[in-house]
Specification:
Two copies of one chain form a homodimer. By secondary structure, chain A is α+β, with helices and mostly antiparallel strands. Chain A is about 25% helix and about 25% strand. Chain A binds a DNA duplex (30 and 30 nucleotides) through helix 5.
Chain lengths: ~250, ~250
DNA sequence: CTAAGTAAGTTGGACAGTACAACTAAGTGT
DNA sequence: ACACTTAGTTGTACTGTCCAACTTACTTAG
């Protein structure tokens, strides 16, 4: 077996090597949003039909790849996201895949996990539309999740945090119009630590990411300049991370 | 379908939703190494047995997940890497997954791609042990690769390059003992651009990554201090990227 | 009406790490 | 002896963060 190669490996190979057990294949999506000054994930409560594992448990939204309908994995993820939240074009990135013999009691299964960032308004709409949906604090204590979804969620939070250190990802969590302090607060919520006000301003304004609009946000105090994402909404990579105080 | 959730979606669902077509599931590994002052990938030439797609084409090493032997995806990737290169514990990271209806003529298939970094000596050993193995320049023109492996390879190069900007990953491409200029050259090969000598030194020496050993490398010129990786060989994340000249 | 309070946004000095170039050190080949 | 090469150091300029103090604009209490 030492020299096995290409797509020809595996047990019970015969006539092309296709007639042996295939893993179950699913796609799951970790949908992040900001609610109540905290990072939340959208979860669905599972049903309790005959044969369904983890009845009534919370789970990441997702499901089996539909070989007949989904051209590829990304299309499958987009389909599920749109079907479920109605969000048109949020940030959607592949997170990784988890596969093992034991993660699903029904057999060897592999899931392709994606993570999405949506603004609070879209999250509220999704929650209002379907009573099975819940939003939970992504970093706090959570109820037992179905499958290995707790592990996937933890990986998603980690990935999000590490990317937020040097990218503009939190901008995708913002409403269309926002102030700089609001954007900074979103960063701080995701990173769970305070950032320097003036360094944050310098960086955000010198990055080719947001642009001021001719409006101000009236608040209880001094009014604040409103900004919006520039047309090219691709994430920006900064040359260095924010300071990480000891 | 708007409210579909959990692991219960899909076409032709019946009695738990398991009796509909499952995608083929494979694991492929992009193995990088440095050869001839260039970043190389290890590829295998496919066979031309009956029913094998892409006969005689170059492909990433990999194969079907073996539901009977592989506890999980990472174990499957490790197994394939060890079986094929004999490398014990190189750097191995999940790259992502590619799945579509068309990437394999035999049907809907999804591959879980990993990428590995191995020192040149391990690569030479693997090449010498099996005549079907080849090492090709990862960034230059390549022959047509089987499946969508060209796309996966390109993604791997991109991921490697972007991580090299702010991590110590190239250290895993080095032999056990190396000099600082050799390490710098490895960075430059991967990034395909020159780096500042003194900034590179400052960064590498202040990072808790390598340690000098009581030996010097005798070369044609002035001898150079030898270093080795510190015990904790986890990748180091730097606070900022190397300068990217316009 | 005034004073205190709060948050937005600016300013300036200290500091860290990189950019760049010039330098010294130690070996080679002619 | 000399030029040549590469290892490694030194020093100045510069960029962007860190941190604290400041101004600006608005609200609320008295």
């Amino acid at each position: 077996m030492a020299g096995r190669q290409g797509q020809g490996g595996g047990a019970g190979e015969k006539g092309g090597g296709l007639d042996f057990p295939r893993p179950l294949t699913t796609v799951d999506i970790v949908i992040f949003t900001i609610r109540q000054e905290a990072l939340h994930v959208l979860l669905v409560r599972r049903g309790h039909a005959e044969g369904e594992p983890f009845p009534d448990a919370f789970a990441l939204p997702g499901g089996f790849v539909d070989v007949a309908r989904d051209a590829d994995l990304a299309a499958c993820a987009r389909r599920k996201l749109v079907e479920k939240t109605g969000v048109v074009s949020p940030y959607l990135e592949q997170l990784g895949s988890w596969g093992s013999a034991t993660r699903d009691p029904r057999g060897w299964s592999a899931t392709h996990a994606y993570f999405a960032l949506i603004p609070a308004s879209a999250a509220e709409a999704a929650l209002a539309a379907d009573a099975r949906w819940f939003a939970l604090d992504a970093t706090g204590v959570k109820p037992k999740l179905a499958f290995d979804h707790a592990e996937i969620l933890q990986a998603a939070v980690q990935r999000l945090r590490s990317k937020v250190e040097y990218t503009s990802l939190p901008a995708f969590l913002m409403p269309e119009e926002f102030t700089l302090p609001e954007l900074q607060r979103t960063y701080e919520i995701v990173l769970d630590r305070a950032l320097e006000k003036s360094a944050f301003r310098t960086r955000m304004l010198s990055a080719d990411l947001i642009e001021p609009i001719a409006k101000m946000r009236k608040g209880p105090n001094r009014p604040a300049q409103l900004y919006r994402l520039k047309a090219a909404a691709a994430p920006v990579y900064f040359a260095r991370t924010f300071n990480a105080p000891e």
